[in-house]
Amino acid sequence: MLYTKHLTLTDTTLQEVFAVPNGYVCSVNYIFVANHGGATNQVDLYWDTVGDSESTVPSPGTTTLNYTFTSPATDVYLEVRKNGTVLDNPTDYSVDLGTKTVTLVTATASGEEYTISRLDPEVYIFDSTSINGGSKETLGGQSSLGIFALHEGETVKTQTSGAGNVEVAVTFELLEKPAVLVDFNGS
Predict the structure, then answer these.
(1) Quick one: DSSP state of residue 156?
(2) Judging by beta carbons within 10 Å of its beta carbon (0-12, 13-18, 19+), is residue 20 exposed, middle or buried?
(3) No. of helices (H) and no. of strands (E), the chain
(4) How do the domains of the chain map onto residue ranges?
(5) % helix, strand, coil for the chain, step of 5
(6) Which terminal Cβ of the chain has fewer Cβ within 10 Å, N or C?
(7) Quick check: helix, strand or coil at residue 75?
C-alpha cells in the first residue's frame, strides 16, 4: 500500500518524517520539498539506522538517565524516545556525551518507557541543499519503481538551516518483510 507522509518545517528543529516499523521494508517512490518562504533555505533530508539502543522504565520522578554504549561524536546522533515518541534536544532533554548521561527537563511519570539510541546516518538525500523561496525540489515519481529501499528500524529525518515555511512530503510503499532474503550469489 502507498503512503505519503507530510511535514511543514517552520523552524530548525530536526524532525522525523517516518520510521519503518518492525517487520516491514519500505520503498520510497517520490520526494517533494518546497520552500514557500521568501528567502533561500538549506534543507537536509536523510535516513539513518539505529546503532546501539537501550530502554528503561525509570522510577517516577527521575530526571537523569544513563546509557552504556559508545557515545556518538555529536549529540545530533543520540536519540531519546518516550513511549516511542522522539523527544527534542534541548527542549525535552540535554546530553553529556562524556558521562553518557541524559538529563530530562520534565521528571518521569509512572510506567513511562525511555529508549536512548545512537543513530548512524546512512544516506543524505538532500545535504544542505539550497532551495530558493518559491522553488521546489523533487526526486522520483517517473515510474512506480522505488528510488530508495529502507529496512525496519530505519528513519527518515529532515531539518532546515533557518526558520521559514518548507514543506516536505515523501511517498512510499510499505511491504511486509520477507521471511528470508535470497542470497544474491546463488548459493
Answers:
(1) E
(2) buried
(3) 0, 14
(4) 2-176
(5) 0, 55, 45
(6) C
(7) helix
C-alpha cell at 154: 530505519
| Per-residue cell: 67 | 546509557
Q: How far apart are CA 172 and CA 86, in angstroms?
A: 21
Type of residue at 103: T
Characterize 110-144 residue by residue with b for buried, 16 or more Cβ atoms within 10 angstroms of its Cβ, and e for exposed: eeeebbbbbbeeeeebbeeeebeeeeebebbeeee
Q: How high is the pLDDT of residue 185?
A: 53
Q: Mean pLDDT for each consecutive 10-residue tract of the chain (187 residues)?
A: 94 90 90 95 90 93 96 88 88 95 97 92 88 95 84 89 95 85 55
- Grid cell locating 15: 524532525
Q: Is the bond into 60 cis (omega within 30 degrees of 0)?
A: no
Q: What is the pLDDT of residue 59?
A: 95
Whether residue 157 contacts residue 17, with contact meaning beta carbons closer than 8 Å, is answered with yes
User: The cell 530530562 sits on which residue?
Assistant: 104
CA–CA distance, 117 with 93 (Å, rounded to integer): 14
Give the C-alpha distances (Å, rounded to integers) separating 97 from 92, 105, 113, 114, 128. 16, 17, 21, 17, 25
Whole-angstrom Cα distance, residue 33 to residue 44? 10
* Contact between 88 and 78 (Cβ < 8 Å): no
Please provide residue 111's backbone torsions phi and psi, each rounded to the nearest 5 degrees: 80, 0
